[in-house]
Amino acid sequence: MPPEEATGIRIHLDKLLAQRGMTLTELSERVGVTVVNLSVLKNERAKAIRFSTLAALCRELDCQPGDLIGHDPGH
Q1: Rounded CA gap, 20 and 75, in Å?
Q2: Residue 70: which region, alpha, beta or left (left: phi > 0; alpha: psi -120 to 50)?
Q3: Which CATH class is domain 3-67?
Q4: What residue segments make up the domains of the chain, in order of their start?
Q5: Distance CA 5, CA 7 (A)
Q6: What is the distance, to the nearest Å, from the Cα of residue 52 to the centroid of all Cα atoms in its chain?
Q7: 23 in helix, strand or coil?
Q8: Which residues of 4-41 are buried (b: 16+ CB within 10 A; e: fewer)?
Q9: Which of 4, 18, 42, 72 could lock 13 by a disulfide, CB 3.0 to 4.6 Å apart?
């Protein structure tokens, strides 16, 4: 990622899915977001996330936004 695009935002979707024994496909069906879009988020290629999507992810993963998203300014 070019330095001007580096945000330091990290997505912990893989970790949360593993902890809950859930697949990306299952999460996709539960939140109504395509697997492709969730994959973009999971692979940290997303440039934005809607609050409604964030709320749905938190609901289905039983987590808080800070469990899903972190900030590491060094990266």
Answers
A1: 27
A2: beta
A3: mainly alpha
A4: 3-67
A5: 6
A6: 13
A7: coil
A8: eeeeeeebbbeebbeeeeeebeebbeebebeeeebeeb
A9: 42
| pLDDT tens, position by position, 9-29 | 999 999 999 999 999 999 999
CA distances from 7 to 11, 13, 44, 66, 74 (A): 12, 17, 10, 16, 9
Which stretches of 32-72 are DSSP H helices?
Answer: 35-42, 51-61, 65-68
pTM: 0.87
Helices (H) and strands (E) in the chain, counts: 5, 2
